[in-house]
Amino acid sequence: MPKQLEIHPVAGFYLxxxxxxxxxxxxxxxxVIELAPEAxxxxxxxxxxxxxxxxxxxxQHLQKVMPRALLINSGxxxxxxxxxxxxxxxxxCQWVADELGCSREQVLxxxxxxxxxxxxxxxxxxxxxxxxxxxxxxxxxxxxxxxxTTDTVPKMISKQIQxxxxxxxxxGMSKGSGMIHPNMATMxxxxxxxxxxxxECLQACLSDAVKKSFNRITVDGDTSTNDAxxxxxxxxxxMPVIDSMESNEYDQFSRAVxxxxxxxxxxxxxxxxxxxxxxxxxxxxxxxxxxxxQVAHAVALSPLxxxxxxxxxxxxxxxxxxxxxxxxxxxxxxxxxxxxxxxCIVEKGGRAQTYTEEAGQAxxxxxxxxxxxxxxxxxxxxxxxxxxxxxxxxxxxxxxxT
Length: 402
Known about the structure:
- The chain is an alpha+beta fold.
- It is built from 11 helices and 15 strands.
- The protein has helices spanning 53-64, 82-100, 121-133, 140-146, 199-211, 248-270, 289-300, 303-310, 316-324, 357-364, 391-398; strands at residues 13-18, 30-35, 40-45, 69-76, 107-114, 155-163, 166-175, 188-193, 228-233, 278-286, 337-340, 343-347, 350-351, 368-374, 380-387.
- The strands form 3 sheets. The protein has a 6-stranded mixed sheet. A 5-stranded mixed sheet has the order 3-9-8-7-6, with helices on both faces.
- α2 packs parallel to α3.
- It starts with 12 loop residues before the first strand and ends with a helix.
């Protein structure tokens, strides 16, 4: 998160947080967000078949009615908990509904933390009452702390943009550090705006933004059971309603949302568990989006590439091998060029004639590194952001439950 970030509150979006003692370390771990009655919320969720109980409940509730509240707990994922997990998620929603005077179906639950443990319901119950007592439009920092698990830094962004003749606020937060290979969104992400926009336009905006942001990051290749991302428009801004995806106003708003989510997604990569490098894997000249992502993910997920990055070792053969096993059909290896930064390392099927170990080392010594693969097969291009693998990644995950 940028230092001295000015957080712009979003009218109609109230956040309350507390220490419910779900986490062993006693840090903030439960958040309630109350939404204005006219607010519209769009969401995306994990495609993991073992999706957590709160994901199942949130999806069901969102199909019935627009939410009036979000409930988030950290320290316990309520995943792999069967029928009891579903009952606990529903009861938690009822407790929020009782506090705020809405229906249970108007509450969306979210959880993150250890998989396979039941929620400590007495702590959840007390925490909900405490969080509701703390509701305020200025509660962003406390709420952001409340959704963190192995994160080492809070991830927030806030900006004001022009949409047509109107000033619109966009403020958001996300959490995630490990188990990051989203197939919809990130571990958890919540973005709010005061814009007036239809439900259909908001969902299209979110889906498009997630595709090019949270779905383009990977730390370790593990898609979480609890991934979820919401975009809430409280409808409080003084502006005409955006109700057409063909309008200039939609285009302006959509681009701003995408920028916000790309920044939040990149914050997750930079805070990847044990990460010492921020790596952009860019693939150009593919026949389509799918094969560009095949190649990018093959490189970004390779343990051999990631450990070489940690060692700052310009072992370019590992990158070449990852590209070759990506599964792209009829790949012309003589046409492929691979670069570390601006240093060409591979061309015409082998080591580039101009390459020197010293030039490669100079790039690998940097904290921000770009790996560029030019396929020369078409016009498609994609970028995936990732990290290295360090000793600390193993340590953090080996000791996660202790």
